Amino acid sequence: MSYKSLLSLALLAVTAAALDVFDNSTEIIGKRSIPNGEGTNNGYFYSVYSDSSVTGTYTNGAGGEYTLTWGGSGDVVVGKGWNPGGPMSVEYSGTYAPNGNSYLSVYGWMTSPLVEYYITESFGTYNPSTGGTHLGTCTSDGGVYDIYTQTRTNAPSISGTATFQQYWSIRQTHRVGGTVTTGNHYACWESVGLPLGTFNYMILATEGYSSSGTSTITVGQGTGTGSSAPTGPSSTSSTPGSVPTGGSVAEWGQCGGIGYSGPTACASPFTCTVINSYYSQCL
């Protein structure tokens, strides 16, 4: 083997190793498995998944910010959030400009049962509900979401190749920026017969499939979710579902449940309604 060939192999090995380091840097998206694209940055969990047909860059920014540019015929899913996820107030802002099939969602996983879930705020040219089973609607954070489920057979997952259910809440009116009270969606899913498992990671994700686009998103944690919410960086802006001054809870906010230690009085004219043993909500 020539000296040039040996040098090329060495450079390829160094480059491959560097692709798994994302902290405060921009990296070229290449073929990677789910575990190889996970880590922490500025106090947030992040996940980067792409297959071999995707090109582009992923950048971890300050705090809960990230930027993605993508293209190609494959699938890419990236984002920042928490590990584990769970019932909490997710606040986000930014820009999202897809060309083709893409979703902007609170995206996460559960185990026992294994579930991949999406709370979709906006999408591109393809409605992700296509082919799913419609189970009802969920009203939360000033909007109405359609609930769907579908089965993924022998598909990639956090537990390797597996067959599992997807849960979807798809916002009827698209938006880029606001609050997502995840506990509301968990309660809605349970109410239509979709069981919850143990929470794994949860991110504010940009996903693109056979498409292109750019996305710059900043994610943070709001208030008013009680002790059941994971700890982490938080945002202080006032949004629906947060705890206003005076100790009362606004519409859609949590007001009770096992492990909850926050305010239990709802702002007028709303009342604290038991959804399940772990979650009561001002409705």
Helix and strand composition category: mainly beta
- Overall helicity: under 10%
Radius of gyration: 20 Å
Number of helices: 2
The poorly predicted ranges are 2-24, 31-35, 224-246
Total count of strands: 20
The sequence of SSEs as H and E is: HEEEEEEEEEEEEEHEEEEEEE
Strand content: over 45%
Envelope shape: globular
Distance between the termini: 72 Å
- What is the overall pLDDT average? 80
Q: Please describe the biggest sheet, giving its number of strands, its sense, and whether it closes into a barrel.
A: 9 strands, mixed
Q: Trace the largest sheet across and list its strands.
A: 2-3-6-14-8-9-12-11-10
Domain GH11: 32-220
Catalytic activity: Endohydrolysis of (1->4)-beta-D-xylosidic linkages in xylans
Signal peptide: 1-18
GO molecular function: hydrolase activity, acting on glycosyl bonds
Question: What does this protein look like?
Answer:
With 283 residues, the protein is mainly beta. It contains 2 helices and 20 strands. The protein has helices spanning 3-18, 182-191, and strands at 26-28, 38-41, 44-50, 54-60, 65-72, 75-82, 89-99, 102-111, 115-123, 133-140, 143-155, 162-171, 178-181, 198-209, 212-221, 248-249, 254-256, 265-266, 272-276, 279-282. The strands form 4 sheets. A 9-stranded mixed β-sheet has the order 2-3-6-14-8-9-12-11-10. The chain has a 6-stranded antiparallel β-sheet with strand order 1-4-5-15-7-13. Strands 17-20-19 form a 3-stranded antiparallel β-sheet. A hairpin with a 4-residue loop joins β4 (54-60) and β5. The protein is globular and about 50 Å long. The termini are far apart. Mean pLDDT is 80; it is low at 2-24, 31-35 and 224-246.
